[in-house]
Structures are given as C-alpha cells and as structure tokens.
Design a protein that fits this description.
By secondary structure, the chain is an alpha+beta fold. The protein is built from 6 helices and 5 strands.
C-alpha cells in the first residue's frame, strides 16, 4: 500500500512519493523578472511625466554613437509657453522623486524651448513652431540604415 501525502507535502514536493521513495521532485527554478536598467527606469519616468501633462508628439531618439553628451534624447511639444513650462517642471519633479537628479534646466524663463539635462538623457520640451524651426528630429534621428551609410 502506498503512503498518502498531505496537501502541504504535495504542494512543497516533500514527503513520501509514489513508489515509496523519499526523493523530492525536481521542479524548474522560478526566474525573477529582469531588473530594469537605470536608463530604462529614467526613460519610463520621463515618458510618464510627459504623458501625465499631456505633452504632444513625444519622440525618443537613440543618439549613442552620434554624440558623447547623452545616450537618449526625448523631444516633446507643448501647446503654449505656460504648458511647455509646466510640462518641463513636471519632468524635473518626477525625475527627482524617482532619484534622478537633473544636471541642469535651461529656458524656463521664456518657455519657448526648455531643455532638461538628465546626464544620459536630454529632454527638450518646445512649442510646435520652435520644434519645426530647429528640426531636432531630422538632425538627430539616425536609424540603423542611416548609421550604416554614415560609417
């Protein structure tokens, strides 16, 4: 007659098994979810802060290999100078709360274009006319094919 296992023994794999052997069943190890990198965490905080304030046309550019200043550039628009200022202020507040200290903030007085330097990431919040005039996306957006052609 086979010994019966308790519910706890069944759940933990302990106790006598079918066949009377006391060996535990090998179970696959649970793998932890990968921990997001610091850059990924910063990116998600910035994007969330921009979206919370209803920033328009949020674009994230990978500028690694193009400049040593930053790895990522984020460009977003606001509907008015007051909106640009409040969007930028929200990004600064949320990044500070998340433990990322901005290196500097420029342009808050005029608020046509506010630049936030977050070390490995630069965030530009601009009025649409200023964004169109300077064309930062065209300047910095280097897709893989453009990078290969450049090299």
């Amino acid at each position: 007659m086979k010994p019966k296992r308790s519910a706890k023994a069944k759940a933990t794999g302990a106790g006598p098994k079918a066949g009377g052997e006391g060996k535990a069943i090998a179970r696959p190890k649970k793998t932890a979810h990968p921990v997001p990198s610091r850059a990924d965490s910063l990116r998600s905080v910035v994007i969330k802060a921009l979206e919370d304030m209803k920033a328009l046309e949020i674009k994230v550019l990978d500028v690694r290999g193009l400049t040593d200043v930053a790895d990522t550039m984020v460009i977003a628009s606001g509907t008015s100078d007051r909106h640009v200022r409040s969007v930028a202020q929200n990004v600064v507040e949320k990044t500070k709360q998340a433990g990322f200290r901005p290196h500097g903030v420029e342009g808050q007085q005029d608020s046509d274009w506010v630049l936030i330097d977050l070390h490995d990431m630069i965030v530009h919040v601009m009025l649409p006319r200023v964004r169109e005039f300077y064309g930062l996306e065209k300047l910095w957006d280097m897709t893989a094919t453009k990078r290969a052609a450049r090299a």
